[in-house]
Amino acid sequence: MLTWKEAAVAALEGAGSLTTSEITARIRDLKLRELTGNTPEATVAAQLYLAVQNHDPQVRLVAPGTFEHTGSDRVSNTAPTLGRLEFITPRRVWPDEARDFTPWLLDNADYLQEVLGIDLDIERTEHPVGSFSLDLFGKDITNGCRLIVENQLEQTDHRHLGQLLTYAAGTKAGTIVWIAPSFRDEHRDALDFLNETSSDDVRYFGVKLRVAILGDSDPAPDFELAAPPRGWLTKVRTQSAGRNDGGELSALRTAQLEFWTTYLDQLHSEHPNITNVRAPQPQNWLTLNFSRRLTITGAFVSSGDLRCEVYIDVGSNDANVRIFNALQEHREHIETVVGEPLLWDELDNRRACRISCATPGSPTETDTSHLIEWLRERHLKFRDAFLPLIAELPSELWK
What we know:
The chain has 399 residues and is an alpha+beta fold. Helices cover 38% and strands 25% of the residues.
């Protein structure tokens, strides 16, 4: 999939002068990439303004909010008239962190997803942790763990660092994100220390938030990693290249990665808003959707089957069974929507519970198109059958 900048430049090529709204419409019409977030025009504007500021030879600013393609990838001998990019305090856009910024980020999580380099699903704001409430709670789909986000609109301080650690412990999160306009050196050091001394299953991120304007343009948010886990950028690049720890993947891992990649490509082409997952890993399973800490998952299992399942694990066996039983009360309706009987399994020897169906299949088959079709059909029906019911389950079941 093209980046926002690549898509914007491609949309401009041969089209003359266009406003950012017109460029965004062309990205959609030409299917250059999915328009994620509530303000794709602002994202396009930010990318093009930064391209102009960085002297990209392909893009020219012809008027506030209007751009054109130069028709060449060579720098013109005639320097264009450029504006100066100005960074403003985030509070000019979001006066209040809790009422303004946190809900905005919930609706525009693609900004965070892109800067972290992971697929994520932010579920809700003000998630309770004991008598406290953390800003954002969800799931790091790429790493299969809980994700929390602590926001502030001023320079980092000790109070927010303490809150971050309290929320991380209270939620058993694996991916912990702290967002602020600037980070004190001491707090960068603290995040580095946490990353160095934590297990490989836990990662801390410091993310710097900036807001840019150019002349009379609309404000454009900009996120950058201020304190990533050690070696994180290398790890993301390695995963994107389809390799593991710098070595060649095994034939099985390669087949798994190719299957999930093909599945997601076809799914996003036919159903663009069906899932936030975009970066499959070379493994036997893939989280397809996430809701209230439950997942719809596709998995190749040791029995030689491909399985579509709802996996229930909210951290407590008692809670898992309560949720399982509550869903089982709607078994007839669920199986009618799915169109076939399902296996309802409490997994007696494990903490989690599972509701699933399966078909024989392996990612190493010469032609896996029938498996992709089977999984897509069940995936969509599982979403229709389960997600509305999961959303309506009483909150006391999850405690």
